[in-house]
Amino acid sequence: MASQRIRSRPEEGRKGRRMSSACRPGALHTAFNMLALSWIIISELLLSAHCLKDLKIFVPEAVLMGNAATLSCQYDLEQAALYAVRWYFGQEEFYRYVPREAKPTFVFAVAGINVDLANSDATSVTLKGVTRELSGTYQCEVSEDAPLFHTEIRSAYMQVIELPKDDPVLQVDKKVIGVNDYLKAVCTVGPSYPPANITWNINGNQIRRTPLQSISQDSYDGSTTHSALEIHANSQALQGFFETKYQHSVNLQCVVTIRHMYHKVVAQRIGLNAAPPTTISPNLLGLEGSKRYANGDPDNSALTGASQRCCICCGSFGAVSLATFTLAMAHL
Ligand SMILES: *[C@@H]1O[C@H](CO)[C@@H](O)[C@H](O)[C@H]1NC(C)=O
């Protein structure tokens, strides 16, 4: 008894101190010590009603298919003895640890589960070569020994991830867009589990769904994931770049993620053709051409003062319409 006390002294924590003073009645003569003892007894009684406490489960949120996964369970038994730790996948028990048995570990056959006994004990269990089917809820149940057999249980979800074998592919219907164009892009990711998440960025800013920015995604477990983007030059994401004189292209990105295990970006530069709508000049040129034929003087008409004036007129008309367009855009 005495030697035990001495040995426990250097590593004495909160618990150790309480133990040693309770076990040393000779030191408790003063009223102060009596008070301290009753406080210790009361707190000891209160604690004994909740000896098993702070049960926490730690399960990897995501683990790659084929890898090992270590699940652990931490608890504080205070002075109580451990009776058993049980692990369940869904409702099925697959591992049990009972310290009072000669061979404390037990494994129960559950489809797909392969327990690595060398790396399993009272607080953790390791699964070898996890498969997709082992995605699900795991539970850890800890029981105190007699007389209370107080039991607690915690659960957590684990996702087994299968990554796509190939890099994502980004296809666009045009590499240069004009002020009235729609740009269509499709991003494709090979089969994965769970299906990948795809988001779109332009110059680093995520494109949200709006009437001029449509995004659709289709995917099924373990199959290819596609995301289609259809975006107009007047959309929120692009409009601003057309108004900036010095912006000749933007960087379109397809961002593919699967939990925190996979993150790939495929990019495509898209040219911006911010020239004023070309529909005005061909019409006017066409009119000019027909007038030329009517005059029967096609060779000289281009050099006459009248047609030059007309060109200046067209030019200023173009500038005015561009300015009006720009103003209209600024007001939008
Ligand atoms: C996709 O995104 C949603 C919402 O952020 C998230 O809950 C889900 O886990 C993600 N799926 C994958 C496979 O990353």
TrEMBL record:
- Glycosyltransferase found in the keyword field: no
Highest taxon above the source species:
Eukaryota
| Annotated region (Disordered), positions in chain | 1-22
Per UniProt, the keywords (alphabetical) are: Membrane, Transmembrane, Transmembrane helix
Transmembrane regions listed in the UniProt entry = 21-42
| Species | Drosophila yakuba (Fruit fly)
Which Pfam families does its entry note?
V-set
Q: Which SUPFAM superfamilies match?
A: Immunoglobulin (SSF48726)
Question: What sequence ranges are listed for the domain Ig-like?
Answer: 66-143, 164-257
InterPro entries named among the record's database cross-references: Ig-like_dom, Ig-like_dom_sf, Ig-like_fold, Ig_V-set
Q: What is this protein called?
A: Ig-like domain-containing protein
